[in-house]
Amino acid sequence: MRSFKTVLLTAAxxxxxxxxxxxxxxxxxxxxAYSGQDYCITxxxxxxxxxxxxxxxxxxxxxxxxxxxxxxxxxxxxxxxxNKPQADTPLLDVIDVIANPVIRQAAPEIVVSNMGHLIEFxxxxxxxxxxxxxxxxxxxxxxxxxxxxxAEDALYLRQILSESLDRLGINDHPLHGPHARAYARSLVxxxxxxxxxxxxxxIDELESLFMSDLDGRLARSNDIINEESNREILxxxxxxxxxxNDDAExxxxxxxxxxxFRILGGR
Length: 267
Known about the structure:
This protein has helices at 4-14, 17-22, 25-44, 52-65, 71-80, 91-99, 101-106, 108-124, 126-139, 147-167, 177-266. It is an all-alpha fold.
């Protein structure tokens, strides 16, 4: 007997758009959830698996790359992209294609389709991506320390997408042009936010270095002050001891003289 999941997936594959539209919202949600789950699991299976840090960085990178890409912009990507990767294509290979300067110059439409693949995954599988990021950061809070660097990498790849679309002439398209320009404007806002976050991070590092240096200087100053204080106290103690000894010797001499006078006077 086939499982309920298999039945739903089979029904989704055979159902025409009109028939699918006639089903109730709960049934449509179930079919979409199961088909989306398989897609998400397939794509996530291509992620690096060397450890928690690598997986966190990859999920966070994909999440940041999917920002500001609404349905209209994704439709523009589908229009201008070519040779879209399969769901089981390793995402490292997809990113390598996007970052390859030769492909960017010779075939920007391939860059667009590869970025569209990542954006589609980030959009369709957002609950899985968010869940992985939250669980990994809960396991090791230090993983979030590199978020600014990851955001910079994602912004770089998003700028490549915008530039590739521009080279393909999307700005002149009456339907997709406004969405492409809006996406380009969002990159400016994101760039400002990323640069400010990097600035804050650098300030925090400088403050930490300054405070560490200040603590060291204060510690050394205290040691010198304590050493000088101890030396001064020791000097005062020696002087006092010498004065006491000198006074005692003077008094002893005086007594000896008085004794000698008495002895001589007694003769």
